[in-house]
Specification:
The chain is α+β, with helices and mostly antiparallel strands. The model has no long low-confidence stretch (mean pLDDT 90). The relative contact order is 0.20.
């Protein structure tokens, strides 16, 4: 079975395009949301691709209730206001060696 260089180059190009849109950068920041039970049970997690697009998921742990929020990220920024922890998670995701 012969494979020519043109076919290999085409497949490689397709894989590179697919990989660029896959989650490759992850940052997690744990913090205390001020609930009575203490501890760093809340967190913000950023999941981004090579275009710096993705999502930030934030959970706020409380004594009686937990809240989960998501915010869309495009080119490293969000149209919604980000908390300090969410910004830290994005920075961590983009600067951490993968």
């Amino acid at each position: 079975m012969e494979t020519n260089e043109g076919e290999i180059a085409l497949k490689l190009n397709q894989l590179e395009k697919t990989l660029a849109t896959a989650v490759q950068h992850v940052g997690v920041v744990r913090f205390d949301s001020g609930s009575d039970d203490g501890g760093n049970l809340s967190f913000a997690a950023a999941f981004l691709n090579n275009h710096q697009d993705g999502v930030v998921v934030t959970t706020l742990h409380g004594g009686q209730h937990n809240r989960i929020y998501t915010k869309i990220v495009k080119q490293g920024l969000s149209e919604q206001t980000l908390s300090e922890e969410e910004r830290e998670a994005i920075i961590q995701a983009l600067t951490k060696q993968q």
